[in-house]
Design goal:
The chain has about 280 residues and is mostly helical. Helix content is about 75%, strand content about 0%.
């Protein structure tokens, strides 16, 4: 959802979302591990810092788009990945990262319901946002920035707003994910495979929908867990690619478009039945 609100709605393809998730994760990890900060302080602070730092870092990149924007965001992720391994390892844990972090809740079932609650709260909030006039402008920015500018609106402000909201959602995910695992490391947060998973989930589910990335994440998770005994870990990413190609071939707008088409068909049949009933 974080990737979709920026890339799906404004057309600025970001490869740097692990950078945002990592900022939140490492911030709350360092605060709790070294300073003993309670979670109800460290997690909101990490989200706020992600919004501020991410916006400041990426603001210059908002003046470019396309391949150049994607490469700039990817560069931020890669630079941060290598810096965390060599700079202040006593603080960041170096290549091994930090372990022994506190959990928000313990147990598989409580973690599931907590994740579900956070996902629904964020999803509903973003859905309300994109259905508002702001969401309309963001979609217009994706289609034609010049038209937005000619209407007397500043597209840069709306792009900055979209990135700030995207950073906030990434911060929420990064902070909760870190304390779900109870540990954090550069490889876990900034590895290219993590980025690949984010992109495939959003694109397979359906970008520019908010609901699509949720469907994509659930679909890939359940499918891969079912196939885990039969497919070695390294082959999972080949499966990701195959799934993405199949979905793009039969449903270019993602899984969400299939459900949307099905519901529209059912709605037409019901209206037709009422008309001739």
């Amino acid at each position: 959802m974080s990737w979709d609100i920026l890339s799906g709605y404004t057309g600025y393809i970001s490869f740097g979302h692990p950078f945002l998730i990592g900022i939140a994760g490492y911030t709350t990890a360092i605060l709790t591990r070294h300073l003993g900060t309670p979670l109800y302080i460290s997690m909101p602070f990490s989200i706020l810092l992600t919004m501020v730092a991410g916006t400041l870092f990426f603001f210059p990149a908002l003046r470019i788009r396309g391949t150049y924007f994607a490469l700039v965001t990817l560069a931020f992720m890669e630079v941060t990945y290598h810096l965390l391994k060599i700079v202040k390892p006593a603080v960041t844990g170096g290549t091994r990262g930090l372990t022994g972090l506190p959990f928000v809740v313990t147990g598989a079932v409580p973690n599931y319901y907590l994740s579900l609650f956070v996902m629904l709260a964020v999803g509903i909030g973003l859905w309300v946002l994109v259905k508002s006039s702001i969401g309309t402008v963001l979609s217009a920015v994706r289609m034609d920035e010049g038209a937005v500018r000619s209407a007397g609106l500043n597209p840069t402000k709306f792009k900055l707003f979209a990135f700030t909201v995207s950073a906030m959602v990434a911060g929420i995910g990064g902070s909760f994910y870190t304390h779900y695992l109870g540990s954090i490391s550069p490889r876990a947060m900034f590895d290219i495979t993590f980025l690949f998973t984010i992109l495939v989930a959003a694109l397979v589910g359906g970008e520019h929908t908010i609901v699509g990335p949720i469907l994509g994440a659930y679909f890939l998770t359940f499918l891969l867990e079912y196939l885990r005994p039969y497919i070695p870990g390294a082959w999972r990413f080949l499966l990701y690619s195959v799934i993405a190609l199949v979905v793009y071939n039969f449903a270019p707008k993602g899984i969400y478009s299939i459900f949307q088409g099905l519901f529209d068909w059912i709605g037409r049949r019901m209206r037709r039945g009422e008309q001739y009933g």
